[in-house]
UniProtKB/TrEMBL annotation:
<feature type="compositionally biased region" description="Low complexity">
    <location>
        <begin position="312"/>
        <end position="323"/>
    </location>
</feature>
<comment type="similarity">
    <text>Belongs to the RIPOR family.</text>
</comment>
<protein>
    <recommendedName>
        <fullName>FAM65 N-terminal domain-containing protein</fullName>
    </recommendedName>
</protein>
<feature type="domain" description="FAM65 N-terminal">
    <location>
        <begin position="49"/>
        <end position="301"/>
    </location>
</feature>
<dbReference type="InterPro" id="IPR026136">
    <property type="entry name" value="RIPOR3"/>
</dbReference>
<dbReference type="InterPro" id="IPR031780">
    <property type="entry name" value="FAM65_N"/>
</dbReference>
<feature type="region of interest" description="Disordered">
    <location>
        <begin position="306"/>
        <end position="344"/>
    </location>
</feature>
<dbReference type="Pfam" id="PF15903">
    <property type="entry name" value="PL48"/>
</dbReference>
Length: 352
């Protein structure tokens, strides 16, 4: 049954579709308020009140769009700074490899120390940028929908679900009732997105006080959860896929309390704020001196003699070092994720 827009007149009710059509023509300037109401047999006062309400909604939407645009500009600024630090770190890494391959002169040892110092500094700057990016990613609102196990779930079974996302934890217990209804002690949770961490899920069946059976334990990436609309996703808990965990995920690009986030950013340590300001004000290194150019020419000749092995062992940051992906980049990802990919079982979300 279509919704109706009730008027306080003797003309009865006007369908909402008619009100929206008339209001759109008036707001677009195609028709006057009096003519639109007369053609559709709508009271002038009612149509005016409806248009006023729509204009308020448009203003709210426009303010939200401007807020999103400003938020996007901050993300792009972080991305540009991250790309700069990534290129500087790759250059420092190449210099370290080149100095290690050269003769052990005093100048080479001094330059190697400076290159190592620069590599460490750029890596720390990238960590600061990743931390700042995490503060701009908003939050995930997760709602528990239940377990899907077909014949695997029986009435009276009790399960415990433990989720770990960085330092964030969420533990909930549930029971399967006779009518296949599931009752959970906690159904909603808010998680803050992280750059270099997986969402680990562990499901345990509680059989008795001291007898617990682990149904499955998996780890999932969260990049697919960044969506404009709410989505219901499912993940296979065990290898056969007979038990699935269903969640409703809503991503909010802004924090729940912007004032709190602003206060937290103001209360940061002065060293972090100073370093963060210097990152954006940092420019690429100057042109090498004559001594450095001569040393580079010597390395280039040495490289030609060894078929390019001196400079080919650069860091495998990405296919294009000038535009790294923030979701898969960073120094912590290079050391932390490579080990986890060998021991963890990564699964993909399935959108329902």
């Amino acid at each position: 049954m279509p919704r109706n827009y009730t008027r306080k007149t003797t003309w009865g009710q006007t369908p909402l579709a008619e009100m929206e059509s008339a209001g759109a023509e008036v707001m677009q300037g195609k028709m006057s308020l009096r003519k639109a109401g007369r053609d559709r047999n709508i009271d002038k006062t009612t149509l005016k009140r409806f248009i006023k309400k729509k204009k308020k909604q448009v203003k709210v939407t426009e303010r939200y769009i401007r807020r999103l645009e400003f938020h996007l500009s901050k993300i792009e600024e972080l991305y540009e700074a991250y790309c700069l630090q990534r290129r500087l770190r790759d250059g420092a890494n190449k210099m370290v490899k080149a100095y290690n391959a050269s003769l052990g002169s005093k100048e080479a040892r001094e330059s190697l120390t400076e290159a190592n110092k620069g590599y460490k500094e750029y890596t720390e700057n990238m960590c600061v940028l990743e931390s700042e990016l995490e503060n701009q990613l908003g939050e995930f609102h997760i709602k528990m929908k239940g377990l899907a196990g077909f014949a695997r779930l029986c009435a009276g079974d009790q399960y415990e679900i433990f989720m770990r996302y960085g330092r964030q934890r969420w533990k909930l217990r549930g029971k399967i009732e006779i009518n296949s209804k599931q009752v959970w002690d906690s159904e909603e949770m808010v998680l803050l997105p992280l750059v270099n961490d997986f969402l680990s899920v562990k499901v345990t069946e509680l059989k008795s006080l001291a007898n617990h059976v682990v149904v499955g334990s998996v780890s999932c990436e969260t990049k697919d959860l960044f969506a404009a609309l709410s989505q219901t996703v499912a993940v296979d808990i065990n290898d056969l896929g007979t038990v699935k965990l269903s969640l409703e995920v809503t991503w909010n690009p802004f924090d729940k309390d912007d004032q709190g986030s602003m206060a937290s950013s103001v209360n940061k340590a002065p060293t972090v704020s100073k370093r963060f300001s210097t990152i954006f004000n940092q420019s690429p290194p100057d042109t090498p001196s004559l001594r450095e150019q001569a040393f580079y020419n010597m390395l280039r000749r040495h490289e030609e003699l060894e078929n390019g092995t001196a400079w080919s062992n650069s860091s495998e940051s990405s296919d294009d070092s000038s535009s790294p992906q923030l979701s898969a980049g960073g120094p912590r990802n290079a050391t932390h994720h490579e080990g986890n990919l060998q021991t963890r079982k990564l699964v993909a979300w399935t959108t329902l």
